[in-house]
């Protein structure tokens, strides 16, 4: 018998993942434990690295567009919007108002779909199975709309550089309106299941706290930043694609814990419905594609364009050398940067809280690893 | 040169301008920075309304610190690099900072050669930790004073830096592939 076993030791190193259901993909976290308490974590990422940035340098601007959908694959439409906006800025192309409004509608639907996946899986991690079935049911309606619009459900490639490829199908407006009418009471239903639920509150309140200063120091953006009380949303701060025309609120939290992040995301879904309804009300007619040259060859230059993706600031830094292929494509992924705060949030928490904290960051490993 | 437009009939392959058509950037912030850093900042410019400055490598971290403390640029958005193998200083390091108070974003660029060790910005912006690790992983640029400079996306025992321009998109590390996957990779 050895003198001491691992159980006697004060420090225990525990491996979690990459094959673990609550890490939402292939995230590996090495936990350093003192009993049940976490005293340090280390993320091991890259299992899903596909070299998206290198691929971008070896494709033309238009050829690369479908690849960006494969980063954050639960919010593919947002990825596509960010990329198209960056290339359009580099080219100096104007996007017609109709295309801008349709982009807003599809992107906000995507925000709802992304938040629904987050809500369902997060609740599942905490032990509530029912919300997952409910959120998947509502998300299905959004995916059906995508499928009817462009033929794809997840990696949609819904937009083209300069606007849209497809005109809206017959009945799109009615279907989206019907979804909005159906969806708002559903959000109340989720809240009824969770907001006042004692287990939910006990597991989320004061877990994974980040102050506003922490968020800025770690570059944390999106709902996590807003839950810490910073009223900052790129849709308001630096509007793109006509967001300045819409009236909507930026929900914020107070405590910066997992519970406030939950409340912020719930309210964001309601605000998205508001935006979609306004965009449908004022949907302009006209062209759906701007004046895009046959061969996309931006002048020598560089541009950084970012949008408010469901997970935070998604940025594209493009460098053009005047040829048909980007000289450099850099993606600033919100999940990757937000995940870096995991260690800060986990220190002092319990092992069971780590699962909650991974869930509350809302990562997609396809985007973390690219 | 940069503003020439091909007129009339389509001409054979209109020459693209060789340099970015950036315009000068001048305001209170550039004056303050010039006063503080003098000729360590070599260029203030803006392209398509996006402001950037070019600085000497050793001035980058002091500039980031100055911007954070004196001008509210408290959010480091991104750190990345671009490889220009033809230039004497082949790498261009790009730092993007944002100010919540000003709602303004600027880029700080610097040029470094092969083997240079730029200073790490982690002490000023903790978020630079993973971002600099990614630059190290993809370009092989080592950051001096980084607390944990290891590869982040590729395996730790991988050799080569894929985002360098001389790395082919098909290039793998044959030894790694053989050892871990049991496959023969084309070198």
Description:
- The complex is a heterodimer of chains A (370) and B (187).
- Chain A is of the alpha+beta class and 370 residues long.
- Chain A is built from 15 helices and eight strands.
- In chain A, helix 4 runs antiparallel to helix 5.
- Chain A is globular and about 65 Å long.
- In chain B, strands 1-2-3-6-5-4 form a six-stranded mixed beta sheet.
- The radius of gyration of chain B is 20 Å and the shape is elongated.
- The termini of chain B are far apart.
Helix content of chain A: 40-55%
Mean pLDDT over the residues of chain A: 89
What's the helix-strand series of chain B? EHEEHEEEHH
Largest interface: A-B, 43 and 40 residues
Spatially, the strands of the biggest sheet of chain B line up as: 1-2-3-6-5-4
Number of strands of chain B: 6
What would you call the quaternary organization?
heterodimer
Tell me about the largest β-sheet of chain A.
Answer: 3 strands, antiparallel
Helix segment tally of chain B: 4
Report the order of strands and helices of chain A.
EEEHHHHHEEHHHHHHEEEHHHH
Write the layout of secondary structure elements.
The complex is a heterodimer of chains A (370) and B (187).
Chain A: E1 12-16, E2 28-34, E3 37-44, H1 52-57, H2 61-68, H3 76-91, H4 97-126, H5 130-150, E4 159-160, E5 163-164, H6 172-194, H7 198-204, H8 212-217, H9 223-227, H10 234-237, H11 258-281, E6 301-309, E7 312-320, E8 328-332, H12 334-339, H13 342-346, H14 351-361, H15 365-369
Antiparallel strand pairs in A: 1-2, 2-3, 4-5, 6-7, 7-8
Helix pairs in contact in A: 2-3, 3-4, 4-5, 4-11, 4-14, 5-6, 6-11
Chain B: E1 23-24, H1 28-37, E2 41-47, E3 50-55, H2 60-70, E4 75-83, E5 91-99, E6 104-112, H3 128-139, H4 174-181
């Amino acid at each position: 018998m050895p003198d001491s076993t691992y159980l006697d030791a004060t420090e225990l190193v525990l491996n979690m993942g990459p094959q673990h259901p609550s890490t939402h993909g292939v995230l590996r976290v090495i936990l350093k434990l003192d009993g049940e308490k976490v005293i340090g974590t280390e993320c091991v990422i890259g299992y899903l690295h596909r070299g998206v940035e290198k691929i971008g340098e070896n494709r033309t601007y238009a050829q690369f567009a479908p690849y960006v959908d494969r980063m954050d694959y639960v919010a593919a439409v947002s990825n596509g919007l960010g990329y198209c906006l960056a290339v359009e800025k580099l080219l100096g192309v104007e996007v017609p108002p109709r295309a801008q409004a349709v982009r807003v509608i599809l992107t906000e639907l995507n925000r709802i779909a992304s938040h629904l996946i987050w809500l369902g899986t997060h609740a599942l991690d905490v032990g509530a199975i029912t919300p997952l079935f409910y959120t998947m049911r509502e998300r299905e309606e959004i995916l059906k709309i995508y499928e009817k619009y462009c033929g794809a459900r997840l990696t949609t490639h819904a937009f083209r550089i300069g606007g849209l490829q497809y005109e809206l199908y017959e009945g799109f407006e009615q279907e989206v309106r019907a979804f909005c009418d159906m969806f708002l009471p559903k959000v109340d239903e989720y809240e009824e299941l969770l907001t006042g639920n004692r287990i939910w509150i006990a597991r989320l309140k004061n877990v994974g706290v980040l102050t506003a200063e922490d968020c800025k120091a770690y570059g944390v953006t999106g709902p996590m930043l807003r839950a810490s009380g910073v009223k900052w949303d790129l849709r308001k701060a630096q509007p793109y694609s006509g967001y300045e025309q819409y009236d909507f609120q930026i929900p914020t939290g107070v405590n910066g814990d997992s519970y406030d992040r939950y409340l912020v995301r719930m309210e964001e879904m309601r605000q998205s419905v508001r935006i979609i309804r306004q965009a449908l009300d004022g949907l302009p007619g006209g062209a759906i594609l701007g004046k895009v040259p046959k061969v996309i060859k931006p002048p020598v230059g560089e541009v950084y364009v970012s949008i408010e993706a469901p997970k935070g600031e998604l940025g594209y830094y493009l460098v053009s050398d005047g040829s048909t292929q980007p000289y450099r494509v850099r993606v600033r992924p919100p999940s990757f940067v937000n995940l870096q705060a995991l260690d800060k949030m986990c220190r002092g928490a319990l092992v069971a809280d780590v699962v909650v904290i991974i869930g509350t960051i809302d990562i997609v490993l396809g985007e973390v690893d690219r | 040169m940069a503003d020439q437009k091909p007129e009339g009939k389509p001409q054979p392959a209109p020459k693209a301008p060789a340099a970015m058509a950036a315009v000068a950037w001048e305001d209170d912030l550039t004056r303050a920075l010039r006063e503080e850093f003098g000729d360590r900042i070599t260029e203030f410019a803006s392209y398509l309304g996006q402001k950037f400055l070019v600085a000497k490598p050793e001035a980058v971290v002091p500039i980031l610190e100055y911007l954070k403390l004196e001008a509210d640029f408290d959010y480091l958005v991104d750190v990345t690099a671009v490889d220009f193998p033809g230039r004497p200083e082949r790498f261009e390091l790009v730092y993007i900072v944002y100010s919540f108070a000003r709602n303004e974003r600027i880029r700080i660029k610097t040029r470094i050669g092969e083997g240079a060790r730029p200073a790490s910005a982690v002490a000023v912006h903790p978020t630079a930790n993973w971002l600099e690790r990614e630059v190290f992983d993809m370009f092989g640029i080592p950051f001096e004073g980084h607390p944990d400079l290891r590869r982040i996306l590729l395996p730790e025992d991988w050799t080569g830096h894929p985002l360098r321009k001389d790395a082919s998109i098909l290039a793998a590390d044959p030894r790694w592939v053989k050892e871990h996957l049991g496959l023969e990779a084309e070198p």
